[in-house]
Design a protein that fits this description.
Blueprint lengths: L12 E3 L2 E4 L6 E4 L1 H9 L4 H8 L3 H8 L6 H11 L8 E4 L1 H15 L1
Length: 110
């Protein structure tokens, strides 16, 4: 199963209707810090953006917490601000991703 901002390794083992194992590894998270900078540059408040893009208050909370939102919502935000996705969102690798890169780099050096 894949979610927008992280990959879930779904390893469930069932015994007598009980889950014995479930593993979830977060590899990538998102940051909307660029979005807040664009709003400052355009002299627009978060409330103005919410009204202009027709966003629910819960969606604004998700954005403030750097949580996943639907791609259609990001499209509406980009349309209102006249920007591209890269102007409002950054993908940030997690510690697990960084460790994986370090291991690959060490193996290639050897």
């Amino acid at each position: 199963m894949i979610k927008r901002n992280f990959i879930v390794i779904d390893a469930e083992i069932w015994y007598n209707n009980t889950i014995l194992l479930y593993a979830e590894v977060k590899l990538v998270s998102v940051s909307y810090s660029k979005l807040w900078k664009v709003l400052i540059d355009k002299k627009m408040s978060k409330a103005d953006l919410r009204k202009a893009a027709g966003l629910a208050p819960n969606t604004m909370t998700k954005l403030r917490r750097d949580e996943e939102v639907k791609l259609s919502i990001l499209c509406r935000i980009c349309a209102v601000l006249h920007v591209n996705f890269g102007d409002i969102i950054d993908f940030v690798p997690s510690d697990a991703e960084k460790e994986n890169r370090d291991i690959i780099a060490e193996q290639s050096e050897a």
